[in-house]
Design a protein that fits this description.
Helices cover 54% and strands 9% of the residues. It has 130 residues and is mostly helical. The strands form two sheets. The chain has a two-stranded antiparallel ribbon with strand order 1-2. A two-stranded antiparallel sheet has the order 3-4.
Length: 130
C-alpha cells in the first residue's frame, strides 16, 4: 500500500481519523496514534480522549442501568401491594390497573438487571469478575 499523498512512497500507517495510508513525511504522531500532518491531528486528539474515558462511561452506564432496574423492581413491588389491596377491597379496576403496572415494572426491571442486556465486557475486564 502506498501513501495517499505520495503514490510512489510506501505507507507506514493509517490515519486514525480518516483512514488514509500515510508515508513518513505525511504523518504526525498524536499520542499512540497516527494522523494526517496538519489536517487530522485535532480530530485524533479528540478520538484519543474519547477512547481514554470510554471504560469510565461504560461503567457509569452499567451502574445507572442497575440502579434503574432496582427502582423499577421497587415500583413493581409497591404496585403489587396496591393491586393485592385492590383485590381484597373488591376494587377490581384499581387491582387491574396496578396489576398491569406490576407486570410492566417487574418485567422491565428483570430485563435491566439481567446480564443478557448488559454492555459487553471491556478488554481489561474480560479476565476479572464483575
Amino acid at each position: 500500500m502506498n501513501c495517499f499523498n505520495h503514490r510512489d512512497k510506501p505507507a507506514i500507517g493509517l490515519c486514525r481519523s480518516c483512514g488514509r495510508a500515510l508515508c513518513e513525511n505525511c504523518l504526525a504522531e498524536v499520542g499512540r496514534s497516527i494522523a494526517c500532518k496538519d489536517a487530522c491531528e485535532d480530530r485524533v486528539r479528540v478520538l484519543n480522549q474519547v477512547m481514554a474515558v470510554n471504560p469510565q462511561i461504560v461503567r457509569a452506564s452499567r451502574a445507572q442501568a442497575r440502579i434503574g432496574g432496582f427502582i423499577l423492581l421497587f415500583m413493581g413491588l409497591c404496585s403489587l401491594v396496591i393491586a393485592v389491596g385492590g383485590v381484597l377491597a373488591s376494587a377490581t379496576v384499581v387491582a387491574a390497573c396496578f396489576g398491569f403496572l406490576t407486570v410492566f415494572c417487574l418485567s422491565i426491571a428483570f430485563m435491566r438487571l439481567s446480564r443478557k442486556y448488559e454492555y459487553p465486557a471491556l478488554k481489561d475486564e474480560s479476565s476479572s469478575n464483575r
